[in-house]
Amino acid sequence: MRDYSKLIEKINTAGSILIFTHANMDGDALGSSGALCLALRSLGKKAAVLTQSPCPAYLRFADQGFLTGEVPFDADLSIAVDMGSDSRLEGLKEVFYRSKDQICIDHHVRDEAFLTDVVVDPAAAACGCLIYELLRQMGVAISVDMANLLYLAVLTDTGSFRYANTGKEAMVMAGELIDLGVEPAAICNRIYASYPLSQLRLEGIALDRARLLCEGKGILTYVCEDDYRATGSNADEADSCIDRIRTVENVEIAAVLKQRGSVYKLSCRAKEYADVRRICMTFGGGGHLRASGATLDLPLDLAMEAVAKAIEEELSR
Fold this sequence. Notes:
- There is one protein chain.
- The chain has 317 residues and is α/β, with parallel strands linked by helices.
- Helices cover 39% and strands 19% of the residues.
- The protein has twelve helices and twelve strands.
- The strands form two sheets. Strands 3-2-1-4-5-6 form a six-stranded parallel beta sheet.
- The chain starts with a helix and ends with a helix.
């Protein structure tokens, strides 16, 4: 059992709490921070999740009024959720450190020191696993709304329990959340069976231009703003392209470059043995062993060439 005692002490003494998570939220970031926010409110705390970017369309159904893009109050405590470095706070760094105290709950490998009072466990399948354990140690009565958010967190970060990070903790937690009232099919349908046609068309473009590397063990593609306009999609909808191309037979490493303004966001996934975090660290990014990302401020042709080289180097180890 992880030790949350210092974090719980700080939470108990705080009357107002702001929760921060990374930009371009995924299901784990939204589910973890949202469940924590609802739990804190149930304890009589003033709490909100301060966002750096709009909630992706496919996750909007899960926002139960806890997300805000404006600083709603001066906080006694700031909590970083699902981020292992304050560089991921981006434009909200000053607000984060403005509070009287700060803590961090995360499951990424840490590249640098980030706060003193933390619970960080890269072995956790999702940050939602850590939040669930925290709430239980705090004695919070977990509502159905909290349970749905926590299930969303673990479901998405394990790829609906298909990724290599899926372990006993995640499966037991999922079962306990179902006992609390979660309906798995309903959440799965919202996440995996409710794609806009524009998103599927964008995935088709990504598949059409996919490039196989290392005798089919690697696959690399890209989508750009012209593709968003042509399909009526957007950069958020590009996030599912990585899941589509990683299903190609015999592929170990999948990578997608997604244009966001003048830069390209790199998403990398591995199935069994490759270390894609090492690839992304080459470009100043990071994340998990089998799922990582980075930002490349390069023209598309140079970005594709650099990522292809990094994939080939990783697969030749």
